[in-house]
Amino acid sequence: MTAYLSLVGLRRFDERTALVLALSGGVILATSVPSVEVSAALVAGAIVLIAVIIRPVIGLYSLAFSVPFGSGIGLPVGSVIVSATDALVGVTAFAWLAGLCTRRYPKIYIPPLMWPLILMLSAFILSTSNAPSISLGLHEIIKWLEVAAVLLVASSVLNSKNTRLGIMFAVLIAAALEALLGLAQSLLMLGPAGFLLGEGFLRAYGTFGQPNPYAGYLVASAAFGVGLAAGAFGLGGWRSWLAGAAAVTGPVAIILAGAAASMSRGGALAFVAVAGISSLRDRRTVTAVLAVFSVALALVLSGVRIPLPESLANRLDVTLEYFRLFDARTVQVTPENFPLVQRMALWQSAWYMFLSSPMTGVGVGNFDMLYQYFALPDWSSYLLGHAHNYYLNLLAETGIVGFMSYIVFIVSIFVCCLKTIRGHSNENVRWMGAGRRVEEELPRHSPSVRKEGGAGAIELWTSPAAIAWAVMAFLTALSVHALFDNLYVHGIPILLGLLIGLLSAVMAGRGRTEENWS
Q: Cβ(477)–Cβ(269) under 8 Å?
């Protein structure tokens, strides 16, 4: 009861009072700790804690930055490492529950995407019946439980265009900062020798420790920005669209430069897929993409070679080999083909692992523990923690049941995106032809059409259609890159939960007035 009254009382504090109290408490704790780093962390943590309790949406903004920068920071609790991202998810969920207790939010909203996520979690739990290590499986299950928590909170809290705009820019700015870090690593040659590519070039890896997940995160984040631009295009006035494009172009350009510095082939293929999906916005863009594809195909068939830097050309040549299946046991391994053969050896091992328990798998999270029993000759010591293909990894660990439940989850997100795009395609001002504007009748619940300018740009770029296109592009990048790596690491699943929560909020039409708290 005392705790409940305390939470109610927090509502009466304004932000300045709360931050002063938090800072005071943090300073008191910090003075008793000899370490400067821990003292600074206590002060910052106290401020964030109170700020998130007052406004849970701050926790969601913070999660966007915690994905690249906080997941590697952990505190041992017994035999478990609790990362900053894990702690932030817990604090944000607690703050949201406190809001329910104080009736800041009228009721719990269960988004439709929660049900396929629960189905997938159930399949993962079922797979642990065969797992040699329950603790490894529990780690994966908790990861997806956190995704469910973020989905639940975001679908309730992101209830205004300002909060949605804040999430969009938090995602893009966090990714841009991560990209700048990777570019600095590449330019200054700050990294392990194993990331050197040719002479004088080092593959960027950021805070992820590896170029591939780093590129996967950046390409998916850039895809989110590209999807926003595609979704907002043609729904309003040109000045409104250009105002939003000007704000988004800078971060997206930096993100793509950082991704390019990783020289990730999976990331490059993922972005090609994103470009294809985003081009489906209307008939004009489809025609343009088909024309470019036709020209490129004609050049390839004619044997014309485009001059490229040698290191880039070699990687593109090897990339084409990714689409050819072969037996890794029959290939002579060389330094040039080692990454490709290693990946194929892992894929074959994952397939044999799946065949050993096809229905429920060997246990979620247990790939590495059992890898040595299914590894090809001479490859048993190459432990990477996953099969370098998320779909094969999922088949091996969770069987057909887990694999199909994941496919249902992903397809459900795509379906929700398409429904949102179709259901809101007539809510805004549409430009038809060269400069001719046609205003279509708006539903009663839709915001009125504003004059061109800043406010119009915000409404346009936070419209349901723009958000749905952005989430669909983000998911496309993840899904394609997952063919070559496991991207559900380092907090990226939390980012997925955040964005599908954003999608769920606009699907429900949860538009409250700006005076309400978030």
A: no
Tokens 């969770």 appear where?
398
Kindly compute the dihedral angle of the four CA atoms of residues 318, 379, 394, 467, in this order, to the nearest 10 degrees: -30
**How far is residue 93's CA from residue 83's CA, in Å, rounded to a whole number?**
16
Q: Mean pLDDT across the chain, nearest whole number?
A: 79
**Among 2, 114, 9, 99, which residue's Cα sits nearest to residue 56?**
99
Is residue 508 packed enough to be buried (19+ CB in 10 Å), middle (13-18) or exposed (0-12)? middle
230: nearest Cα among 266, 272, 275, 185:
275
Q: Are 228 and 244 in contact (CB under 8 A)?
A: yes
Find the radius of gyration of the CA atoms of the chain.
24
What is the pTM (predicted TM-score) of this model? Answer: 0.83
Out of 57-66, 294-303, 334-343, 366-375, which region has the weakest mean confidence (pLDDT)?
294-303
Q: Which two tokens stand for residue 73?
A: 């920071």
Q: CB–CB of 410/402 below 8 Å?
A: no
Q: What pLDDT, on a 0 to 100 scale, did the predictor assign at position 236? A: 73
Query: What SS3 state is found at 183?
Result: helix
Q: Cα separations (Å) of 62 from 65, 87, 152, 179, 490?
A: 5, 11, 16, 18, 15
Is the distance from CB of 232 to CB of 248 less than 8 angstroms? no
**Cβ 53 vs Cβ 484: under 8 Å:** no
Residue closest to 153 by CA, chosen among 276, 215, 229, 62: 62
CA angle 173, 177, 180 (to 5 degrees): 135
Phi and psi dihedrals of 80, rounded to 5? -115, 140
Strands (E), 268-376: none
Q: Which ranges in 128-210 belong to alpha helices (H)?
A: 134-157, 161-188
pLDDT digits (tens, 9 = 90+) for 214-234: 999 999 999 999 999 988 887
3-class state of residue 440 by DSSP: coil
